[in-house]
């Protein structure tokens, strides 16, 4: 039988029930790129035959799965609408555009069809958008499960895609519990999506959230990606090559073809396809959809050796994301236009309401952020805050301040300038950087490293010099590198540097950008939902390690582990948390760090101003602990330190075994997995579903029973009206107490 809309619903559905969600051409037809178009990710046998559409609307449907190699997906569910997605691949169509028909039902057998306007139910699959097709179906009932499929009409028959299942959001006034899961970081290279198999086993999920790193732009980076299955670019000339000609050669995506092939390849995974066929997704991007540790349109592969800003590459990444992700951009007429400058080409921050109890607010923390506060090519000896600046900011000279010479050009007749300049070529830095205020410790250590005969500045002289903060004092010991710039940064010194930069140039710590920040705070403060859940890519909680008790001079200090996270933008974080302190029931769900953490991020110096944060590990990507071990082994300075590898392996004990991170109640940096959440009017309950890393290196396709027993689970709870985190200990919930660093 056929379910018909009421006259009012039908008219509304006729007008906007199936709307092409931006995949029509911008201006004219044709492919807007000359990139090659590979076939990575296609599975099944390619059918043969011609592509002229048939008029036999009642002809039986044939199995067309091979024409839809990435299957189907849905996303951005609202009470009356949802986005439906597919991609059609038919070699017989040549370079021509195709048209698909979308069909909707309330049962998987399509015996109860939802009638759609025939004209609007025909949607384009254009070559210029890689024959991806999207439909925004409006006029739907809230909190309702629908089934959908796409039909490819050919002369030899009507070929149906796989059947997808989706679900609309409950009405804003519905007093119902909402169940969802969230995921992030799903490296495909040498790893398998067994975490998704566990997610599919969760009962009655309404949707799932993806917090970014849906694809990884590199095809086998040996510093963190495993050998095994992977993506091969057809357009290697358009990609960035590393280790060229060696056994460890690999590529990073750059052309539009490269980025498209990533999505095709990742969607070839059967577990990921089944998740998309079963649940609507709400997604934002993080860095790897474009480039590791990126900011705006700038990459960081070469640590300042070259200018890595590449707006064309950024827009290639954005266009592929637009094409392959089932996203509702708010404006039904929106179409991606690569002629627009970044970041005006696309806006992905948005929010969703699910009944009375859940308001999900998704942000974009990559498009508008500034550069990292310590440049990768920062000259270690350069003084960034002199004595006068430190005293003005802090009231006195801090312990981390070190002696410096006021003018290296004139100091001691220029002998130290000449000696450093002579060493520049061998050490790989520009001698022109040896000017102005230079850290005295840097002078002595550099000349000692090249066995220069110039006498070092002695202790008596050092005691007479002014004291300030240099890049060396921030932890930067190399001339071009991420250690001391994005990772492993001295905390007290960095806090002072970040505060100074924020005071001098507020945009230098503004991760969101003004427009998004104002929208975010207005949305959170204006929400009437019980729970305001912030979906954000990067970790809010500080991740600090205390090495002051370890005999590894000069590394026996407090360190931020990763200032590509919010730790790199502390003043902006404090400002946001201070604003959110006025909003009840705020919980942040985050990813990116490849670890499970739970705690209560708080304003520095004001622990009562806090929210709850639940960090989910990667679906498959190398866990944070393993990344640290690899990073230590690869870095000449860190690998030379006694016990550094052991400390990396014990990172969770360093995080939680001291009072350094009073906000952090739980840490497991060694696993993959996902998080499931249930919210209602009284509680938010979250479960960490955790797999050991070795499980992600094995394909468990068809072995669900064997996989089920490998998940370890931790349960957490937040009570409405409170700002505390509770953890389940064998049926008894205990509260995390930051003042005692204990569960009580």
List keywords for this structure.
744 residues, alpha+beta, 13-stranded mixed beta sheet, eight-stranded mixed beta sheet, 17 helices, 21% helix, disordered N terminus
Structure description:
The protein has 744 residues and is α+β, with helices and mostly antiparallel strands. The protein folds into three domains: 2-168 and 213-283 and 286-347, no CATH class; 383-489, no CATH class; 510-743, no CATH class. 21% of the residues lie in helices and 25% in strands. The strands form seven sheets. A 13-stranded mixed sheet has the order 2-9-5-4-17-14-13-34-35-36-37-38-39. Strand 38 (732-737) and strand 39 form a beta hairpin. The chain is globular, with a radius of gyration of 27 Å. Residues 1-56 have low confidence and may be disordered.
Unreliable parts: 1-56
How many β-strand runs?
39
Q: What percentage of the residues does DSSP assign to strands (E)?
A: 25-35%
Q: Please tell me the overall pLDDT.
A: 91
Count of individual domains: 3
What gyration radius follows from the Cα positions, in whole Å? 27 Å
The order of strands across the largest sheet is 2-9-5-4-17-14-13-34-35-36-37-38-39
Largest sheet: 13 strands, mixed
Cα shape: globular
Measured as a percent range, the helix fraction is: 10-25%
- Which structural category do the helix and sheet elements fall into? alpha+beta
First-to-last CA distance: 58 Å
Number of helices: 17
Organism: Nannocystis exedens
Protein name: Alkaline phosphatase D
InterPro entries: Metallo-depent_PP-like, PhoD-like_MPP, PhoD-like_sf, PhoD_N, Phospholipid_Metab_Enz, TAT_signal
Pfam families: PhoD (PF09423), PhoD_N (PF16655)
